[in-house]
Amino acid sequence: xxxxxxxxxxxxxxxxxxxxxxxxxxxxxxxxxxxxxxxxxxxxxxxxxxxxxxxxxxxxxxxxxxxxxxxxxxxxxxxxxxxxxxxxxxxxxxxxxxxxxxxxxxxxxxxxxxxxxxxxxxxxxxxxxxxxxxxxxxxxxxxxxxxxxxxxxxxxxxxxxxxxxxxxxxxxxxxxxxxxxxxxxxxxxxxxxxxxxxxxxxxxxxxxxxxxxxxxxxxxxxxxxxxxxxxxxxxxxxxxxxxxxxxxxxxxxxxxxxxxxxxxxxxxxxxxxxxxxxxxxxxxxxxxxxxxxxxxxxxxxxxxxxxxxxxxxxxxxxxxxxxxxxxxxxxxxxxxxxxxxxxxxxxxxxxxxxxxxxxxxxxxxxxxxxxxxxxxxxxxxxxxxxxxxxxxxxxxxxxxxxxxxxxxxxxxxxxxxxxxxxxxxxxxxxxxx
Amino acid sequence: xxxxxxxxxxxxxxxxxxxxxxxxxxxxxxxxxxxxxxxxxxxxxxxxxxxxxxxxxxxxxxxxxxxxxxxxxxxxxxxxxxxxxxxxxxxxxxxxxxxxxxxxxxxxxxxxxxxxxxxxxxxxxxxxxxxxxxxxxxxxxxxxxxxxxxxxxxxxxxxxxx
Lengths: 433, 162
Prior knowledge:
The structure holds 2 protein chains of 2 kinds.
Chain A: E1 9-10, E2 25-26, E3 29-30, H1 32-37, E4 45-46, E5 49-50, E6 52-53, H2 64-76, H3 87-107, E7 115-118, H4 121-136, E8 142-146, H5 155-164, E9 167-171, H6 181-186, E10 192-198, H7 210-219, E11 224-227, H8 239-242, E12 246-250, E13 261-265, H9 267-272, E14 283-286, E15 291-293, H10 307-323, H11 325-344, E16 349-352, E17 361-366, H12 371-379, E18 383-384, E19 386-388, H13 393-399, E20 404-408, H14 415-431
Parallel strand pairs in A: 6-18, 8-9, 8-10, 10-11, 11-12
Antiparallel strand pairs in A: 1-4, 2-3, 4-5, 7-13, 12-13, 14-15, 16-17, 17-20, 19-20
Chain B: H1 11-18, E1 31-37, E2 42-51, E3 54-63, H2 66-79, H3 84-98, H4 123-140, E4 145-147
Parallel strand pairs in B: 1-4
Antiparallel strand pairs in B: 1-2, 2-3
């Protein structure tokens, strides 16, 4: 059988850099070469070509300081938290709570108890659906979503609506992918109970006007959940400035490990909510007659949490903060601008999602070539993009496509990688003649 | 790495993608099924007309990637005029080859379809190549709709083993 190139990669050729180096920022200049040296995986080759990793909206890569932090925890600090009085348990508990403090600072929450560790954005949204939605949403009530949402901000609400006899209303977009804010405002009624909106669209990269949407909802006494999975890695998030009620995001999209995420919730709302999962740690006292629940955030952290992952996420936000979210956003914006220009040069390529405010995500269609073929052939050039419906089938339907190809950038990507993407797309077009 | 990076996208596959054979609908199909790959949203419709035991006519349409469309096109060419049992044997052989359980050289009936043997090295794309065959299998079995994620998913359960 003829061997095909696989995604099998060769190991890094050079040793990892010391993880204790100062952050790669010289004045206002963003030193991308130094940043890249922190990411061992970026030295891989795929199909004999240097890896060009442009699937950051799906999951980002991990810098050496975060890897080292995980190793240090595993080798010198691990035990279960919140229980035993021995040295390791105290160390692990201290480090876990230190990570919570870092995450509080990162999103500027008022209090640490408003920061709940979850397994990720999906878990956070489900927590709100179960803990808040099941208690406060009933028959005939209305939930406002947008057509841009990821399935994880649709399906939990559909499950709730089915269970309770509630209704889902959907904010439409224009052809550029921008939410129609007049339509949003007209969806409100006496029965509106919650608004759930993505900060940044995962499929198209569009930045939604969440602050304005939140202000409008609050004027009608309606709380707002923001899905921040695609925003937290790319924008400076300030939950007080946004004035959101819930903000959910994932660690693995922001240089942290998988299996960890954060749900921010306004303390008063979290206190009013019922627990989502029952178990150890989330209780105050248990008898067979009655259980009283622990205070927030512990009420929502039943069982042994992913301690190492939480600590790793703490190291990841240290890393991002040292680079500076403003510097990250500026570099990513220059990538987006350059990539948009270059891709627009290509005949037969259509960029999907052309709103003015975008994160560094480019969804595109190539005339006559299916995205999966684009993805497979780009992989053979070492270029990793995502192809498919991006867990946003209602959006794909609205756009009249079944799938797109999506290049999503991170701060460690370079203009040269944009060129590699463009060359890759040209070679795909050449194969298809 | 020495492999030809374009090995899968050989001219025969590109040609069947550009000019799919037996593309369209049948007026009076005796058997038909709709196949769906929920991972990508692709779908394909296969209809055939059995005259006695023979596949007298076969057609497909739908929306899919080049691998799936070429596989469907070449499938229709390969099974047209064959007996039902021959066609079903070919379904089994193709699925076994695409999933890496059978080397192309050991497949008695595979012929030109051997161009798909390399797909077994691309696990994410195996379902693209298999979908038309899975759908043909469903049509023979008079199952109206099928899915690569169905219980009889060929990735997990070889067709014909049941």
